[in-house]
Write a structure and sequence with these properties.
Elements lengths: L8 H7 L3 E6 L4 E4 L1 H7 L3 H4 L4 H5 L9 H8 L3 E9 L5 E12 L5 E10 L1 H13 L1 E2 L2 E2 L3 H15 L4 E4 L6 H10 L8 E5 L5 H9 L16 H4 L4 E5 L6 H13 L1 E2 L8 E2 L3 E6 L3 H6 L5 H7 L2 E4 L10 H16 L3 E4 L1 H9 L5 H15 L3 E3 L25 H15 L4 H8 L3 H13 L1
Parallel strand pairs: 8-13, 8-14, 9-10, 10-13, 15-16
Antiparallel strand pairs: 1-2, 1-5, 3-4, 4-5, 6-7, 11-12
Helix pairs in contact: 6-14, 7-8, 11-13, 14-16, 16-17, 17-18, 17-19
């Protein structure tokens, strides 16, 4: 790449803080600025004339080359996150932007790429994540800070706590944090989903039963309240508690005693209750579906958990957290998410809140084998050209269903070739076969 003597372009390119290089149509580097030397550890004299893949050894050199895409498609790429390998073997996260270079006739003759070292930003993000971690709850938003300020005092008390919030806001995490910060932390924490069990089974689960209480009840069985002696019982979806059990729970909150199913005597339990719901309990009280006296017994301390749309500044922290968790569980070394993926997530409405964000990233982990999670790893409803914009249907259902859909997408992308699909997903042929068989059964 040559520069006219009367234009200071060469000096400008040499002075910018970002790395900049150009290639010809055969991928040979024709220009390499001083920042590119600093970031890669390779002098320009060595880089110029070399193939760009031999210099950068990046996570996209094998099949997803950004500058190659620009040359072939004639379009620009902006802020794509990848990593490169320095001359000393160090892995460096960078954000790249690339454009095709054309001659006077408009023909593409090469490409130009600018790359920015993200190392300090990544270190800062990790420090920030640790700084804004409260027990297992991650966030720095004003909405969460208000809760964090009162949680230690609330935890030290014995008061009943009512957690209110939309589905997926992490109510059980907050309940566990209250338990872990309380004097009861060395005693059991027992969780019960009041909306997941039939009435009769829920009663026996909560309060236990005596031998002979019903068919097949051959021996006594303690309930969750008795099993949590000295600890905390978390009653999730308390708004779905049947009327008869509302009476029994009210009596326990008043007297700290209960009667097992089929029992003749009372059992005393020293247990703290933390309840949670995504229902409007005041409305249910007004409609006669929830006892007013029980509502006031539960509503000693109320915490309103904000939806993710009210704490968007926490999304980068949560992403960092989930990427770390999935790397540990799945044995991968995913670097993080690209800048364009972060922009999409920051604009998404998240009707499923934090749980939906977790599902999105777990889906992306299925498709991304290494490097950074890119746009092509996101579910279809988050793609920029998705019909009607960003939708909300792609990640509902169980995680097994989401994984099966991801397998189908990968199989289609590999034109039905199962071995190629297995290599991309990092799974065995038997695992893929089982996933597809279950999908066919459904």
């Amino acid at each position: 790449m040559s520069f006219p003597e009367n234009l200071p372009l060469k000096d400008v390119f040499a002075s910018i803080a970002d790395g900049l290089f150009t290639v010809d149509a055969d991928w040979n580097i024709t220009y390499f600025n001083e920042s590119a030397e600093r970031i890669t550890g390779i002098p320009a004299s060595e880089a110029v004339g070399s193939q760009c893949r031999d210099v950068f050894r990046s996570s996209v050199c094998d099949g997803q080359c950004a500058i190659g895409e620009c040359i072939h498609a004639g379009k620009r790429i902006i802020n794509k996150s990848i990593f490169i390998i320095r001359s000393d073997g160090t892995k460096v996260p960078v954000s790249i932007s690339a454009s095709p270079l054309t001659n006077a006739q408009g023909e593409v003759v090469g490409g130009v790429e600018i790359f920015r070292d993200l190392s300090e930003i990544h270190v800062m993000r990790r420090k920030v994540k640790d700084l804004y971690r409260f027990e297992d709850i991650i966030g720095r938003s004003t909405a969460l800070e208000k809760i964090f300020r009162i949680m230690p005092q609330v935890s030290q008390s014995s008061a009943t706590v009512l957690l209110l919030g939309e589905s997926g806001t992490g109510k059980e995490l907050f309940a566990r944090a209250i338990h872990n910060l309380s004097p009861r932390k060395d005693k059991p924490f027992v969780a019960v989903n009041c909306g997941a069990l039939p009435d009769t089974l829920l009663e026996s689960e909560l309060f236990g039963y005596k031998a002979g209480a019903f068919t097949d009840a051959r021996t006594d069985k303690p309930g969750r309240l008795e099993m949590a002696e000295g600890g905390t019982v978390f009653l999730d979806e308390i708004g779905d508690l049947p009327g008869a059990l509302q009476v029994k729970l009210l009596r326990f909150l008043q007297e700290r005693t209960f009667e097992p199913l089929g029992g003749l005597g009372e059992v005393r339990a020293d247990v703290r209750i933390v309840a949670a719901t995504n229902r409007n309990l005041k409305k249910r009280v007004a409609d006669g579906r929830f006892r007013q006296d029980l509502y006031y017994r539960l509503n000693v301390v109320t915490m309103d958990l904000p939806p993710l749309t009210e704490r968007r500044e926490d999304i980068p922290l949560l992403v960092e957290h989930f990427v770390g968790e999935f790397n540990t569980v799945q044995g991968k070394e995913i670097e993080g998410i690209s800048e364009d993926v972060l922009h999409v997530l920051m604009r998404h409405d998240f009707p499923g809140n934090v749980r939906e964000l977790e599902n999105i990233l777990e889906y992306a982990f299925i498709l991304c084998s290494s490097g950074f999670i890119q746009m092509e790893h996101l579910p279809d409803h988050l793609q920029p050209d998705a019909a009607g914009g960003e939708g909300t249907s792609g990640l509902y259902g169980t995680m097994d269903e989401i994984k099966r859909r991801a397998a189908r997408v990968a199989l289609a992308r590999n034109k039905g070739k199962r071995m190629a699909t297995c290599r991309e997903l990092g799974i065995s042929k038997d695992t893929l076969r089982r996933m597809l068989a279950k999908d066919d059964e459904g």
